[in-house]
Amino acid sequence: MAETIGFIGLGLMGRPMAKNLLKKGYPVVVHNRSRPAVDDLVQAGAKDGGSPGGVAEQSDVIISMVPDAPDVRDVLQGSGGVFEKLRRGQIIIDMSTISPTVAKELADEAARRGVMMLDAPVSGGEIGAIQGTLSIMIGGDEQTVETVRPILEAMGNPERIVRIGDAGAGQICKACNQMAIGGALIAVAEAYALAKKAGVDFTKVREALMGGFAASRVLEVHGQRMIEGNWKPGFKAKLYAKDYRIVTSAGAAYDSPMPASALVAQFVNAMLAEGLGEGDYSALAKVIFRLGGVE
Amino acid sequence: MAETIGFIGLGLMGRPMAKNLLKKGYPVVVHNRSRPAVDDLVQAGAKDGGSPGGVAEQSDVIISMVPDAPDVRDVLQGSGGVFEKLRRGQIIIDMSTISPTVAKELADEAARRGVMMLDAPVSGGEIGAIQGTLSIMIGGDEQTVETVRPILEAMGNPERIVRIGDAGAGQICKACNQMAIGGALIAVAEAYALAKKAGVDFTKVREALMGGFAASRVLEVHGQRMIEGNWKPGFKAKLYAKDYRIVTSAGAAYDSPMPASALVAQFVNAMLAEGLGEGDYSALAKVIFRLGGVE
To answer: Shortest CB distance from A172 goes to which of B166, B198, B264?
Structure first.
């Protein structure tokens, strides 16, 4: 008999992820702050847990997928939360993107209650969540990762479900992911602006660069977005901004200087200041374009 | 009968490029500031032109491959240079990486003498030059590009020989190439440092990131260099520093602000200040590592 899975947080990402678990035949007990998502999942075959604690009572494995660290704390440590109802031997998987230091602290607290907790943030966006092809970066106990691997494979690409290291390592990896994307993105945006100002067709530049050392997924996908002026999300700028706050605070927490990422973070802030928070995060390029008077 | 090709500048890149022309059966007349490279090419079947002007006298198409704009000026505009001996209908291809504005100025001067000049900088490094698989980014007259395409195909990958636009566009594209690489490189270096300081194995991080949106050739190749601590060139840091001076001066010439690339340029300077100029340019990462006290 498959484990019963508790799923807390039925947003853009969580809702399709929970549905993919149902599709694989797992019994799923859900909770969400607002009601319509719960009704939707109940319609699809899930059970309403009533509260995070209620979900914990009825589940073997508890997954949380919420916006940020305070939300994870609320779900786990809050009144009526998961920790109040925790039983030895349960497993918690937090798939939210949060601070690595908070992830470690919560895993320690869960361990004191006899429960293994993994941090398992994802990348791949809403499309990856719907298609069940997410990349999942995991921090935590190796044996526990193997235990829950079939569950993760219901939501992610089996080849891209990687245990990175101990508790917090999944969140460090996600921070690295956002940093690598941000550095590539701002540089491609600046290159686009330079080409435009020099009267050069960036379509040709992108084509030439994709064959060589400058090739990247960012150049491929966001380079094309820049050409088309397409800023439809995708992954929302306001969530990327939250992720960059995690990046810079992780830098501070681990005494790790990051001059370029700190600069990117300023332009991510500028993107929100320009009212672009609900658009795709690649609109970071728009901030660079406006600086240069490039439409 | 194939056109006779003049080749001026037989350095790390020029020497194997000229040899590839010989291998394809082109008569080649060469010049180089220092003697041994000329002797080597003569041994391989080339003719010694004696001077840039001498090369121009005996060639239909004149290729220059020298370190920087002052060298190109010297070869073309200097005493005993190419421009002194130019005949209407010849073609000049400058494959050096130089300032886009200088490239345009020289193309204009050549045009006044009835000669088409292309800017055609390359990427792919010494290995690409030896294997004849360079990427070639071309600015200049479309018909002229088609005329010399077979010559360029002797040195580069046919699929990566791209006309970007009018005179100077090849150099703009090369600047964009270096910018895109630089932004990706510094961000990956910062991610590596963060992972290391947080006690996380970057090998795993790189593996996870390569499957997703952060995937890039820089992460693939230089991410691996960081893991191995391998800074053997490759492409020398001091040449990359020259390219970044072109990037930042192009930004100034075209009123194109580039906050991230300007920051990368500072760390490229720091790389030279640290005495890393003869190593691979990916040692930009070492500067970031030292900032963070990462080995």
So the answer is: B198
